[in-house]
Amino acid sequence: MSVTSPKYVGIDFSGDQTQWNPNAKASNVWIAVLEEQVAGCTLASLQRVHQLPGQGRPFARLAAWLANGGFSAAAIDAPFSVPWWLFGQGLPDHAALLAAVDGLAFKPGARLSHR
């Protein structure tokens, strides 16, 4: 998917890992999409992660949605909210998870910018 005008995705998380539960009635994991226009940014959409299309757990649906692209930048404020079931045998604790994330390669063409 190509980006026609700059879009920014913000994912806000409040609570604990139970917010990712597929049966959570009122999850506090929100996705905001901003579109940049000539006059400034506009809130294009606001939805709970549970409202994303697809099958499976909400975290997996979020990952699939993000993998489709269609945005200029995305950020999540949930460094301690990664669902426990994603740790697996190879990641025994949060420090190991952070080390694994730090070791991920950038997508081709991605740049880290310090302003």
Kindly describe this structure:
This protein has 115 residues and is of the alpha+beta class. The protein has a domain at 7-86. The protein has helices at residues 58-67, 94-102; strands at residues 7-13, 29-37, 40-48, 73-76. A four-stranded mixed sheet has the order 3-2-1-4, with no helix packed on it. 9% of the residues are buried.
Instruction: Give the N-to-C terminal Cα separation.
Output: 27 Å
- Total helices: the number is 2
Order of helices and strands: EEEHEH
Q: Largest sheet, described in full?
A: 4 strands, mixed
- The rounded Rg comes to 15 Å
* Average pLDDT: 78
Structure classification: alpha+beta
Global morphology? globular
Strand content: 25-35%
Uncertain stretches: none
**Strand order in the sheet with the most strands:** 3-2-1-4
Helix content estimate: 10-25%
The total strand number stands at 4
Task: Outline the secondary-structure elements.
Blueprint: E1 7-13, E2 29-37, E3 40-48, H1 58-67, E4 73-76, H2 94-102
